[in-house]
Specification:
Number of strands: 5
Largest sheet: 5 strands, parallel
CATH architecture: 3-Layer(aba) Sandwich
Number of domains: 1
Number of helices: 8
Strand content: 5-15%
Shape: globular
Distance between the termini: 13 Å
Length: 209
């Protein structure tokens, strides 16, 4: 089972690349979904730590249901690098344990998939790239990132710009750690072609190790 990490700034298209993998039978994990699972219950340790850390700084962090308002939290941390680092630090250890356990279970199954794929914006910051066999960074022009983010997440231009600027600053030079870089400035067909070229090279190289 070949383990592949896919990172990139929001709107770059890493989820689309993951969809290509999924269509080819890969087991794909989205780290945002894992994060949501970890703090979706107000009884979880992650939830309690987030509330303790941010409740005094983020108006409307929790509603009557007790659940965390991800948009309110996101709006705050994506304008504040230090706050984003605080939030990320809460998750990183738990992410590593969760992903390692999942890989172990799949690897020991009767019919493991050819590819285990991790969709993670914080692939490098979290250290998760170290347990992958190969890592891919997906990027695009800043104007395209903002445009895609506004459309996909239904946010205004100011919110999108703040999010992109924060991530660009946070993930500066991350692509230098990647084995492959995909510049997703073109058509879907071009992106698919780049995907096929990279997966072919990964399959050949990893199996020869």
């Amino acid at each position: 089972m070949i383990k592949i990490g896919i990172g990139g700034i929001a709107g770059a298209g890493k989820s689309t690349v993951c969809d290509f993998f999924k269509a080819d039978g890969a087991y794909v994990i989205n780290l945002d979904a894992v994060a949501h699972e970890l703090y979706s219950s107000d009884k979880s340790a992650t939830h309690k730590q987030i509330v303790k850390t941010f409740s005094q700084r983020v108006p409307g962090l929790t509603g009557q249901s007790g659940l965390i308002n991800r948009k309110a939290l996101g709006s705050f941390v994506f304008k504040n690098r230090a706050a984003l680092d605080e939030l990320n630090a809460i998750f990183y250890n738990q992410f590593n344990e969760y992903i390692k356990d999942k890989i172990s279970i799949l690897a020991q199954s009767a019919d493991p998939p050819q590819f285990f794929v991790l969709d993670a914006a914080v692939l490098f910051d979290s250290g998760l790239y170290k347990i992958m066999d190969r890592n891919i960074w997906v990027t695009a022009r800043k104007d395209l990132l903002i445009e895609r983010l506004m459309k996909l997440r239904n946010v205004d231009e100011r919110y999108a710009k703040n999010m992109i600027e924060t991530q660009v600053s946070s993930f500066e030079k991350q692509e230098n750690k990647a084995d492959f870089i995909i510049e997703n400035d073109f058509s879907l067909d071009k992106l698919r072609l780049l995907y096929h070229n990279i997966t072919k090279e990964i399959s050949i190289n990893v199996k020869n190790i």
